[in-house]
Specification:
Structural class: alpha/beta
CATH class of the largest domain: Alpha Beta
Distance between the termini: 87 Å
Number of strands: 15
Number of domains: 3
Largest sheet: 12 strands, parallel
Order of helices and strands: HHHHEHHEHHEHEEEEEEHEHEEHEHHEHE
Number of helices: 15
Shape: elongated
């Protein structure tokens, strides 16, 4: 075969076809992106090498390499922030960010050069127009700057999941008011707040937000006033899950929180049309009032520490009202042993025996065993009512 008779795709220099040099080039971006994502899961180093081959691969490689960021030192975050100034397009690629480093590293950065004393991670966050998930675990000296990002009307417009925790001196609670505008992000669906405090004030009249998409709210070891919480919960259009936990002996002592279980149920009233699951794990909360939750039309799961948080503790005054369980309640769980209040135990027994009237949808009862186990009367009543009883061994 003469040179002129060779196929057109043969390279006359090395004998290989142009197609064999880069067989990926014919693939559409969507398929290439899937290949690059698979390569990135195996080794990001090799993906970096591939991304240097041409502009197209560089663009697609960036979409994988910078989709999720874990920044565990302020130096790394500062370097990345400076790179966004040179390549602003990268900021729009980022979908998930986790910032996690202690105060000691931040102090070391401040001593590095005078220019870095003004280090502010909010500068890079505000550029991430497509960010969907943000996890913060940073020194509290940075909470105001990040709070300003939540306050911006066009920042984080796609954020769906957020977790906030700021490290404070002597393990104090950080002030949620500095980040309160996280509750105004319209797209936010899941929010977890750890070791924060909030007083009775909610939003000022002039800054009250528009409706939001918040579906899940977790308050972990927080010192939250029930009136302040009530104000924050006026704006979600349909909250579905609420979790609030606190240690049996909080450190430091709680200053803003109510000491009554029913106050936090009342704080949820604005969401009674939509909420499906409520967990309040705070053993120090007393039960002064019988809970009335008949208006919680969608609630199917209710968890609390003590049976008297549901029925109210025994008092000298006669009981004029019975407990009002949600009409669709399917699972009722007590996180601590029952039976510490004899009158309350009798009320629980009566509730089970009359399940068809007061809780006809109830399917599962979860109880922690006390020193004497679980009352035989309650066990027998559950069998008679076809109520599934789970007994968990106490510590």
């Amino acid at each position: 075969m003469s040179i002129d008779d060779r196929p057109n795709n043969v390279n006359q220099t090395d004998g290989f076809t142009k197609q064999s040099k880069d067989q990926l080039a014919v693939l559409p971006d969507k398929i290439l992106l899937q290949i690059f994502e698979a390569l990135g899961r195996i080794t990001k180093k090799n993906l970096c090498s591939v991304s240097r081959l041409n502009r197209r691969y560089h663009r697609l490689g960036d979409a994988v390499l910078y989709k999720t960021l874990l920044l565990e030192t302020p130096e790394l975050h500062l370097t990345f922030s400076e790179s966004l100034g040179r390549r602003p397009r990268r900021a729009s690629i980022i979908v998930e960010v986790k910032l996690a480093y202690p105060s000691a590293q931040l102090a070391q950065l401040a001593l590095d050069t005078p220019a870095r004393i003004h280090y502010d991670p909010s500068n890079s966050l505000s550029r991430m127009s497509n960010l969907e998930k943000l996890e913060i675990s940073l020194p509290d000296v940075l909470l105001r700057g990040i709070g300003n990002v939540f306050n911006g009307p066009f920042d984080l417009a796609c954020l769906k999941t957020c977790s906030l925790f700021y490290q404070t001196a002597d393990e104090q609670y950080w002030d949620l008011r500095e980040n309160i505008h996280v509750f105004t992000i319209p797209s936010l669906e899941r929010l977890t707040i750890t070791r924060a405090k909030l007083d009775e004030r909610g939003f000022d009249f002039l800054e009250r937000p528009s409706p939001t998409d918040l579906k899940v709210l977790h308050l972990i070891d927080c010192d939250i006033n029930d009136d302040g919480l009530s104000d924050l919960l006026e704006f979600p259009t349909g909250l579905e899950e609420f979790v609030m936990t606190q240690a049996a002996e909080p450190e430091p002592e709680l200053e803003e929180s109510s000491d009554t279980f029913s106050d936090y149920i009342s704080a949820l009233n604005s969401q009674r049309h939509s909420i499906k699951s409520v967990t309040i794990d705070s053993a120090s909360l007393s039960g002064r009032k019988v809970l009335r939750m008949r208006e919680y039309q969608e609630l199917t799961t209710l968890r609390m520490n003590w049976d008297y948080q549901l029925f109210g503790k025994t008092s000298k005054k006669p009981r004029l009202q019975s407990v009002g369980l949600p009409p669709k309640l399917e699972k009722l769980e007590f996180l601590n042993p029952i039976g510490t209040d004899e009158e309350v135990t009798d009320l629980l027994l009566s509730l089970i025996q009359n399940k068809s009237v007061v809780a006809d949808k109830l399917k599962t009862l979860i109880i922690v065993e006390g020193e004497d186990g679980v009352s035989r009367d309650i066990v027998e009543a559950c069998k008679e009512q076809n109520l599934e009883l789970h007994m968990i061994a106490g510590q």
